[in-house]
């Protein structure tokens, strides 16, 4: 069926009054109908994600029900008595979608363990493993704007589903008619039957205790740190303040306007700690009280952004910079504590700064590169575990502000990162060094790396086609130079022999650095990752800006 046929079908079958009102409101808007029905939501690097609203290309109770039915069918094929854990963040309809999914699972005879309050993504990964579940769901759209929601799907290992599993689940979803084949029922009835149970607070407490065990701080370390923490109206409020206070970081201030869960994100419509605007209220608070450090976690608390005092103002630390700082800190402290494994392994994504390679080499650490998406880092932890080498994993990170220093979960953890950052700042302070100075010292030692993430939005069906055309054009006519810099080699991760799963990614190696191009797995965007290394910071910045101007023209 085409978009118009699907629209008419939904008009005749939808009973949800909110969805029906939206459908009626676009009756004479062909573009709006096309945008909502030109395709179905598909699994990307983070599972199911899309704009809230009515239609097959939207997040709503019907598309959630269909996806969950497909996942339930998949679980029954792979487990004799499957069970799942479910969590949710503060986004619009996150709790509703969590209950909707719980009812579909329960109607399919799958035992459900549901958090009774909003909890972060890493807490969901922990619960899957702790409760011995066959899988799990986190209803969230991570750091996307307020109009988005979705859910991340997890396997029995607590890791986001693999590429192969995603393909099988997608096939199962495609086989489901969302109006006639989704099994469901009443939440209270399933709860009375014991098919839906609430996850006890003891599980959350064990999660906090396990994160605390990742501390590398000297027991004698003074924790006199003035800290501003903001959960950006998200799930971090459930765990981060308690974790930090338990570890002695008690001088903690939370901006009131961003303390309570709120899916509208009124103070930062784009609740992404990668961008300065999301940290502005935290920075304003820090300036007013003279704090040393600002931390911000995204709505599902798997990413953390950071700003540190630097003279009279604050310096924002990028994801690449923080990843390198933490990698260096983890290696240095493990050696000091005598618990560095004999064959240590760190893991990063292919779009993350090459500067990490120099740091890993300096400490004798094997550095593995994986595709974008923390699930691929989680996969590698699982591989180490299968080899009896789980203890060799010491750290993993991606440029998009995701970090993990333990194997207790298989996803990035904003709480774990927040703790490490606090103790790292105190560790340097004890030596009379600021985190800003420590970062500059790393640049002096390993090279002046300049990185930029360029993000180009392509909305709707026309935008989707434009993205595909741009990627196809690059493959059909590979550029010999970018911004006047000769392309030394091109790696095509979709068709080339890279040793990694096939992925729609192109990497261009230049004498001064590299450019990596890929479509986002979670938003209608093309992303370009630029990395330049030169002898002087000014030269790195100049070359990076030159490359940016080239891609800005290309994406028009």
How would you characterize the overall build of this protein?
This protein is an alpha/beta fold and 556 residues long. The chain folds into 5 domains: 1-38, no CATH class; 43-199, Alpha-D-Glucose-1,6-Bisphosphate, Chain A, domain 3, CATH 3.40.120.10; 207-319, Alpha-D-Glucose-1,6-Bisphosphate, subunit A, domain 3 (Alpha-D-Glucose-1,6-Bisphosphate, Chain A, domain 3, 3-Layer(aba) Sandwich), CATH 3.40.120.10; 320-446, Alpha-D-Glucose-1,6-Bisphosphate, subunit A, domain 3 (Alpha-D-Glucose-1,6-Bisphosphate, Chain A, domain 3, 3-Layer(aba) Sandwich); 448-554, TATA-Binding Protein. Helix content is 40%, strand content 21%. The chain contains 18 helices and 21 strands. The chain has helices spanning 3-13, 17-25, 30-37, 61-78, 94-107, 121-130, 163-174, 187-192, 201-212, 240-246, 276-289, 319-337, 355-362, 374-386, 414-430, 435-446, 460-476, 537-554; strands at 48-51, 83-88, 111-114, 135-139, 148-155, 196-198, 227-230, 252-253, 293-297, 304-310, 313-317, 345-349, 366-370, 393-398, 402-404, 448-457, 481-482, 485-492, 506-510, 513-519, 525-534. The strands form 4 sheets. Strands 1-5-4-2-3-6 form a 6-stranded mixed sheet, sandwiched between helices. A hairpin with an 8-residue loop joins strand 4 and strand 5 (148-155). Helix 1 packs across helix 3, helix 4 (61-78) crosses helix 5 and helix 12 runs parallel beside helix 13 (355-362). It is globular and about 70 Å long. It starts with a helix and ends with a helix. 50% of the residues are buried. The model has no long low-confidence stretch (mean pLDDT 95).
């Amino acid at each position: 069926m085409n978009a118009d046929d699907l629209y008419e079908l939904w008009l005749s079958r939808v009973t949800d009054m909110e969805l029906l009102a939206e459908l009626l409101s676009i009756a004479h808007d062909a573009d709006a109908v096309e945008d909502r029905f030109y395709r179905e939501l598909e699994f990307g690097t983070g599972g199911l994600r899309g704009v809230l609203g009515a239609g097959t290309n939207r997040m709503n109770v019907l598309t959630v029900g269909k996806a969950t039915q497909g996942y339930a069918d998949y679980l029954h094929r792979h487990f004799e008595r499957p069970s799942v854990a479910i969590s949710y963040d503060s986004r619009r309809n996150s709790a509703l979608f969590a209950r909707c999914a719980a009812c579909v699972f329960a109607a399919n005879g799958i035992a459900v363990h549901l958090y009774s309050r909003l909890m972060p993504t890493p807490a969901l990964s922990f619960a899957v493993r702790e409760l011995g579940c066959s899988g799990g769901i986190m209803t969230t759209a991570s750091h996307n704007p307020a109009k988005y929601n979705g859910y991340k799907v997890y396997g029995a290992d607590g890791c986001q589903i693999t590429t192969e599993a995603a393909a099988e689940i997608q096939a199962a979803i495609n086989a489901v008619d969302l109006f006639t084949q989704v099994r469901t029922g009443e939440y209270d009835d399933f709860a009375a039957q014991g098919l839906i149970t609430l996850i006890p607070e003891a599980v959350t407490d064990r999660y906090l205790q396990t994160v605390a065990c990742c501390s590398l701080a000297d027991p004698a370390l003074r924790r006199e740190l003035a800290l501003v923490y903001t959960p950006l109206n998200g799930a971090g409020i459930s765990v981060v303040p308690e974790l930090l206070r338990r570890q002695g970081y008690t001088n903690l201030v939370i901006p009131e306007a961003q303390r309570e869960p709120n899916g509208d994100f009124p103070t930062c419509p784009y609740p992404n700690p990668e961008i300065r605007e999301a940290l502005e209220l935290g920075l304003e608070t820090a300036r007013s009280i003279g704090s040393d450090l600002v931390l911000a976690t995204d709505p599902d608390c798997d990413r953390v952004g950071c700003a540190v005092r630097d003279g009279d103002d604050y310096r924002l630390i990028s994801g690449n910079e923080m990843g390198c700082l933490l990698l260096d800190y983890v290696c240095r402290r493990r050696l000091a504590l005598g618990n560095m494994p004999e064959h240590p392994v760190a893991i990063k994504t292919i779009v993350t700064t090459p500067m990490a390679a120099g740091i890993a080499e300096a400490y004798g650490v094997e550095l593995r590169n994986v595709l974008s998406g923390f699930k691929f880092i989680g996969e590698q932890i699982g591989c180490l575990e299968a080899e009896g080498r789980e203890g060799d994993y010491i750290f993993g990170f991606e440029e998009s502000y995701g970090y993990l220093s333990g194997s207790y979960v298989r996803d990035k953890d904003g709480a774990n990162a927040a703790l490490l950052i606090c103790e790292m700042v105190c560790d340097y302070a004890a030596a009379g060094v600021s985190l800003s100075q420590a970062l500059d010292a790393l640049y002096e030692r390993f090279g002046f790396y300049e990185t930029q993430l360029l993000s180009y939005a392509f909305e709707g069906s026309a935008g989707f086609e434009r993205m595909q055309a741009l990627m196809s054009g690059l493959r059909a006519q590979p550029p010999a130079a970018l911004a006047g810099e000769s392309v030394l080699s091109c790696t095509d991760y979709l068709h080339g022999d890279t040793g990694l799963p096939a992925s729609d990614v192109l990497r261009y190696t230049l004498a001064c650095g590299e450019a990596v191009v890929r479509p986002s797995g979670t938003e209608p965007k093309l992303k370009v990752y630029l990395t330049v290394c030169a002898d002087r910071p000014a030269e790195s910045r100049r070359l990076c800006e030159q490359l940016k101007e080239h891609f800005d023209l290309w994406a028009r």
